[in-house]
What we know:
By secondary structure, the protein is mainly α. It has one domain. Helices cover 69% and strands 0% of the residues. It has 14 helices and no strands. The protein has helices spanning 3-19, 28-33, 40-49, 55-59, 72-87, 91-99, 101-118, 133-161, 169-181, 204-232, 244-269, 277-302, 309-326, 331-355. The radius of gyration is 22 Å and the shape is elongated.
Amino acid sequence: MSTDAVTEARRQLEICNACRYCEGYCSAFPAITRLRAFADADITQIANLCHNCRGCYYACQYTAPHEFDLNLPAALATVRRESWEEYAVPAVLGRVFHTRAWAVTAVLVLGFALIVALMRAGDGAGFYAWMPHSVMVAIFAPAFLLPFAALALGVRRYWRDVGGTPVRWRHVAAASKRTARMADLSGGHGEGCNFEQGERFSQSRRYAHQLILWGFLLCFASTTSGTILHYLADAPAPYPLWSIPKAFGIPGGILLTLGCGWMLWLKSRADGHLSDQPSARADTAFVALLGFVGLSGLALYALRDTGGMGPALALHLGAVFALFVLTPYTKMAHGAYRFAALVRDAQVKEAQAQAA
C-alpha cells in the first residue's frame, strides 16, 4: 500500500475522530471513534468496513472549499483498492485488472468463447455437442478452485494484519446479519445512503445489491443442484423448465441481470470524485460482466433448441470463465474482505464490551 494513501486517510480520520458528527452513519464510524491513534492496520480495517455510501461527505462541514478538504469516501476507497491489490495472489494481477479492467474482461470472455466455438465436439446432445462434459469439468474445476484458493490466501493475510483472533460462530452470525440486511447501505437513520442522490437519501443501491446477492446465490444453487443431479442421479443437462436447477437458475438469472443493470445505472449517476477512479472503472467492468453472466444464461436457455445455442453457449461459458478467473482481483473479492472486516469488527466490539 502506498504511504501517500495511508497518510492522507490518517489525516482525514483524525479530523473525523475529533468531530464525530457522523458517528452513527455505518460500521466504519464506531470503529473510528473507538481509536485514539490509527495504525496502518487500523486504516485498512476501517477502509474495508466503509461501503462508500457517501453520507458522511454530504453531512461534513469540512469538505472543500474548507481548508481541511475532507473527502473520506475517496480516501478510504483508495486505501481499500490498494489493500485488495496488495493481498491479491499474485499481486500483479490485481494491479493489472484495476488498470485495464475492461480490456482484461473482454479478452477473457471473447478468447474463451472463441475456444469453445472452435472445439465443437460434434457428438453428444445439447450443450455437450459443443463441449464434452469431461472437458468442461477439466477446465472449470481449476478455474473455480484456484482463484478461490488465491482469494482465501489473500483474506488470510488480511486477517493476520488486522489482528484477527480465532473466529467464533457468534462473530460470523453478527457479520452475516449485517450482510444479509445490507445494514451499512441503509444510512445512519435507516433512510438509505447518498450514493447516487447527492444530499438526498435513497435505498436504491441497497436494493440493487440485494438483487445481485440473491440472484448470484440462486444461480450458484442452480449449478450445485445440476452437479448433484448429474453425478448422483445420472440426469445430465439440459434440464426441463420444471426442474430444480431451472427453479433456481431462471429466477436467479433474472434477479442478477436486473440487479446489475440497476447498479450500472446508479453508478452512472454517482459523483465520480467521491470514489477511487481505478477501482470505480474496475467495479463497473465487473458489474457488467456479472450482469452478462445472468443475461447470457437466460439467453442460452431460450435458444437451447435453436441454431443460436452454440454462440450463446460459447459467450456464456466465456463470461463464467472470466468471472471465475478474475474473482480474486475484482469486486467479487470485496465481499470476502468486507465480510472479514465485519467479523473482526464483531470481535472488537465484544472485547470492548467485556472490558467495560
